[in-house]
Design a protein that fits this description.
Radius of gyration of chain B: 34 Å
Strand content of chain A: 25-35%
Oligomer: heterodimer
CATH class of the largest domain in chain B: Mainly Alpha
Shape of chain B: elongated
CATH topology of the largest domain in chain B: Serine Threonine Protein Phosphatase 5, Tetratricopeptide repeat
CATH superfamily of the largest domain in chain A: Metallo-dependent phosphatases
Helix content of chain A: 10-25%
Helix content of chain B: over 70%
Number of helices of chain A: 7
Strand content of chain B: under 5%
CATH architecture of the largest domain in chain B: Alpha Horseshoe
Number of domains of chain A: 2
CATH superfamily of the largest domain in chain B: Tetratricopeptide repeat domain
Largest interface: A-B, 63 and 55 residues
Largest sheet of chain B: none
Shape of chain A: globular
Structural class of chain A: alpha+beta
Radius of gyration of chain A: 21 Å
Bound molecules: fe (ii) ion
Number of strands of chain A: 27
Number of helices of chain B: 17
Chain lengths: ~425, ~375
């Protein structure tokens, strides 16, 4: 049984405990996830994470199902959801190996963890998480979430490929940001993405107008659900998320959910928060983090950095000079291939840059891409000496990663291709 | 038996060896084709197709066809892209690459009506690039209008209509844009979500036709297929637009009242309209002092972010005008009464502050910068 360890969770929480929610405390806390080798930490504003019980509330219908990653995406995934009643503490996932299986084929059952958090304009939302570890790489699984008697539709996810066994592995990252306030545009982008079948979603922040308002998160997640329930999403923190407990509660991500790195296919993705609650961290500990994560992933075939505010932009806010001065040299030193941002509501891509100057070829520099067209009111695009292409448009992108090739293709809401393809090969 | 087993093993091993050899050379060939693609060499597709067609099949065969399809689609050669995708599917794999090929094929088939609209789709791509990326896309917009007129049954005709609408709106031809938003809404009644309708309402709001927008919203509210969340969001936008329009009108009225009030006060202090006119054309010391500072401010603003520069210019020019009027009035008061009392000075100063604040709001609003300002306020400034 490959999931023996994870299933310890089932044994640990037992089936007999049918207690409902306990009195709300907003201290946050940490809980070891058995069998996964990591723990889940909630922030101040949220309850400590607790093991599921058997308690089922008035309407335990699961909703806003979305996947995340904490451990190795080759062998693990996290399913997350809420229920209509927000009081159900039963948290169950059923799954089976294979795509699009029938309910009867979902023979494995795992229970998970849950906690409530404080949010503006809402009752206490309650997150449910099930961590699946010990999965097979490059394998499709069918699953559904909920509690006995009330399960979600069946979705399929696929784990990241094993690149040693499959040197021809190709992975697609959906990369986009800035949907805030424009959720019908976001919904149309989600539909475009579904047809393109990405393996991973990289979202560069500003999903909502103000991170403490739950209502907006629900719109964002509801629109994203057809995609998010099948493809794990990794978020960078944007200035509009305002370091809200909602943000950190809703997205299972590696490390401290702000600054972390992970491998997916032939790419290593470093994610950083460029609006930390302690602004001094930006030029201090965050730079140290970048240095150490880049150092640890030095041998990665392709190196990407995702954060929110661009170091190079010719749009409304312009280049973030603080980041350019403090993060830029580290990006140069470790020859990051592609830096991906949002914040500017348009699309733009730079020429290869190094030391603040344009370089002759992609081999000599880092390319910076802004794809901020997921629905927020559009900004004017501009042209500066570093601009390769820019366009004021709603759109999104696909980053295609192979052993010898890194490609970014962008498309508009009408499905037409944006002529800003970035393509880089390595011998 | 043993001999046969050994023979079998030898055959197997040599087959594996041959496979590994094929695989290594295919891998090298695949990489060479990728390099051509990265260099935008038009021969890249041929190279991928050659590798795809080569036998025996290697682990790179499906990848080669899949890359050929990607490049063909990027080059708007949909027939070639579909053929390459069919090759991936024909290999019979069930992995991610094969699933994706099926999905891409059905997307391309839907987009081009299985080939019937290949030429129109190609033209659509070319013109959309010109509309969104070109400097003066009016000629291309007219071509798009002709294209959609000639091909109303093209599967993406409505996407094309929305591109035309966006294009004319960006070119400042609001009326022509609204016509296309209306056409798209009328043609898109069968589309799930009725996004073209919501887009029309948004365009009406942007054009300041709030009553039209309100009527349209009321109609849409009764239609079940309209995206509910989108509808609620547009309603919110309309409410904000209404609020802002009231504030705008109120502030304009206030400014007008202040100018009239200043005129009347000046006349009272000077004694005649003729005298007031003579005084107002003579710059007071405040204005003389402010004009060079204002000029520098405007130049600096235009060197920085041009988007904000218009607003800075308006606020600076308006501020100089306010200082001018205020200075003239104070001078006149001093000339008549000998000095200006503290209370009078306080009221005068307060009115000045109100005038400058109203002016700043109106300038920011006129440049559609209110939301941007709010975001910067919330998110903290990012230095350019
Ligand atoms: Fe944004
Ligand atoms: Fe932002």
């Amino acid at each position: 049984m490959r999931l023996a360890a994870a299933l310890l969770l089932v044994a640990a929480c037992g089936g007999g405990d049918d207690r409902g929610p306990v009195a709300f405390t907003d201290t946050g806390g940490t809980l070891e996830v058995p069998g996964c080798g990591y723990s889940v930490t909630t922030r101040v504003g949220a309850e400590p994470p607790r093991l599921a019980t058997a308690y089922v509330g008035e309407d335990p219908t699961p909703r806003l199902v979305h996947l995340g990653i904490v451990g190795d995406p080759k062998t693990s995934v996290v399913a997350q959801w809420r229920t209509v009643d927000e009081t159900t503490t039963a948290t169950t996932l059923r799954y089976g190996v294979g795509a699009n299986l029938a309910e009867s084929a979902l023979t494995e059952t795992v229970t998970g963890i849950q906690w409530a958090y404080a949010a503006t304009g809402s009752d206490l939302p309650r997150m449910h998480q099930v961590h699946l570890c010990g999965l097979e790489p490059g394998t499709s699984y069918s699953y559904q979430v909920g509690s006995p008697g009330s399960f979600s539709p069946i979705y399929t996810f696929t784990t990241a490929p094993d690149i040693v066994a499959h040197p021809d592995a190709e992975v697609l990252y959906a990369f986009v940001g800035d949907s805030r306030g424009g959720y019908d545009v976001w919904g149309q982008i989600v539909a475009q993405y579904q047809a393109r079948m990405p393996d991973l979603i990289l979202y560069s922040g500003d999903a909502v107008t103000i991170g403490i308002v739950q209502e907006e998160w629900d719109l964002f997640l509801a629109r994203g659900e057809p995609l998010f329930a099948q493809v794990p999403v990794v978020m960078a923190h944007g200035n509009h998320e305002v370091n809200a407990v909602n943000f950190y509660s809703q997205f299972a991500m590696p490390g401290d959910q702000e600054n972390f790195g992970f491998d997916y296919g032939f790419g290593h993705i470093t994610v950083a928060n460029d609006t930390p609650s302690d602004s001094g961290a930006l030029t201090g500990s965050t730079v140290e983090f970048l240095r150490s994560d880049f150092e640890a992933s030095k041998t990665a075939r392709w190196k990407l950095l995702m954060h929110h505010q661009p170091m190079w932009s010719a749009s409304n806010h312009g280049s973030n000079l603080t980041l350019q001065a403090t993060w830029g040299p580290v990006v140069d030193q470790y020859a990051i291939d592609l830096v991906i941002n949002g914040h500017e509501h348009e699309v733009e891509i730079t020429k290869p840059m190094r030391g603040g100057a344009v370089q002759a070829s992609n081999a000599d520099g880092t390319v910076y891409a802004v794809i901020g067209g997921a629905g927020a009111p559009l900004y004017a695009n501009g042209n500066e000496f570093w601009t390769e292409y820019s366009e004021k448009t709603n759109g999104a992108s696909i980053i295609r990663v192979r052993r010898d090739q890194l490609v970014l293709d962008a498309f508009r809401l009408d499905g037409s291709a944006i002529p800003m393809s970035f393509s880089k090969t390595k011998p | 038996m043993t001999v046969r087993a050994i023979a079998f093993a030898i055959v197997c091993c040599s087959a594996v060896g041959a496979y590994a050899q094929d695989d290594a050379s295919a891998s090298a060939e695949f990489r060479a084709a990728l390099e051509l693609a990265a260099a935008n060499d038009p021969g890249a597709i041929d190279a991928f197709e050659r590798l795809g067609a080569r036998r025996p099949i290697t682990r790179w065969t499906d990848d080669a066809w899949s890359e050929a399809a990607r490049l063909a689609e990027l080059g708007d050669d949909y027939a070639r892209a579909r053929r390459a995708l069919e090759q991936v599917i024909a290999l019979g794999g069930e992995d991610r690459l094969a699933q994706r090929a099926r999905s891409t094929l059905s997307r391309l088939t839907a987009m081009t009506g299985n080939g019937a609209w290949d030429a129109v789709a190609k033209e659509h791509e070319r013109l959309a690039d010109a509309v969104f990326g070109g400097d003066d896309p009016r000629a291309e917009l007219a071509q798009l209008e002709a294209l959609v007129g000639a091909n109303p049954r093209y599967p993406r005709a409505n996407a094309m209509r929305r591109v035309i609408a966006i294009g004319w709106e960006q070119e400042g031809d609001g009326e022509r844009a609204l016509r296309w938003y209306r056409d798209a809404a009328a043609a898109g009644t069968a589309e799930p979500g009725r996004y073209a309708d919501l887009e029309l309402v948004r365009a009406l709001i942007r054009a300041g036709l709030l009553d039209d927008a309100e009527r349209r919203l009321a109609d849409l509210g009764a239609i079940a297929s309209v995206d509910r969340d989108g509808l609620a969001a547009v309603r919110g936008q309309l409410a904000i637009a209404r609020q802002r329009s009231w504030v705008r009108r109120g502030l304009w009225a206030l400014m007008l009242a202040l100018v009239i009030g200043a005129g009347l006060a000046l006349r009272r202090e000077v004694g005649s309209w003729r005298g007031a006119g003579r005084r107002i054309v003579r710059p007071p010391s405040e204005a003389v002092f402010l004009i060079p500072i204002g000029a520098i401010l405007i130049v600096v603003a235009y060197m920085g972010n041009p988007l904000i520069a218009h607003a800075v210019r308006t606020i600076t020019l308006g501020g100089v005008a306010i200082a001018w009027i205020s200075g003239v009035l104070l001078e006149a008061t001093r000339a008549r009464r000998g000095s200006v009392g503290l209370a009078r000075m306080a009221v005068h100063g307060l009115i000045g502050v109100v005038a400058v604040a109203s002016l700043a709001y109106l300038a920011v609003d006129a440049e559609h910068l209110l939301d941007f300002l709010r975001e910067t306020w919330r998110g903290g400034p990012s230095v350019r």
